[in-house]
Amino acid sequence: MDKVVTGEDVEKDTFLFYNADFAGVEPELKPGMKIIAVVKKGTTGEQIGGYSFTRYGTYYIVDDDYVLAAYEGESEEILDFTEQTNGIQLDDFMDKIKNLPKG
Fold first, then answer.
1. 21, 30 contact by CB (below 8 A)
2. What angle do CA 85, 87, 88 make, to 5 degrees?
3. Handedness of CA 30, 32, 38, 44 (dihedral sign)
4. CB burial of residue 43 (10 Å; 0-12, 13-18, 19+)
5. Less crowded by CB within 10 Å, the N or C end of the chain?
6. Is the distance from CB of 87 to CB of 67 less than 8 angstroms?
7. Beta bridge partners of 68
8. Residue 73 has pLDDT above 60, yes or no
9. What's the mean pLDDT in 32-58?
10. By C-alpha distance, which of 101, 94, 95, 60 is closest to 77?
C-alpha cells in the first residue's frame, strides 16, 4: 500500500484478496503493477488482517501518469464516472476521488 486517498489508514504492507465469486474475472495482479483500488477491510475468518477489492473502482496506473479502468461498470452512474476518468492523468484522477461526496 503506497497511499490512502480517503478513509482509514491501511498498513503499508497489505494483503489483498479477491472475492471467490469473481475468481478469474477480477484484474490479475502481477509483481510491480501499480493500481488504484477501493478496498474493504476483511471482517471474518481468513479475511481478518486483509482487504478485499473488486473490479469496480480498480484502475491500472500506466506509463506512471495515466489511469485505465479495470472494468467500465454496468450502472449508468459507474459508466458515467468511468467515462469521465478513463485515460486521464493520475493527479486529475486523485483530485476527482478526493472530491467525491462522502456517504
1. no
2. 60
3. positive
4. exposed
5. C
6. yes
7. 60
8. yes
9. 81
10. 101
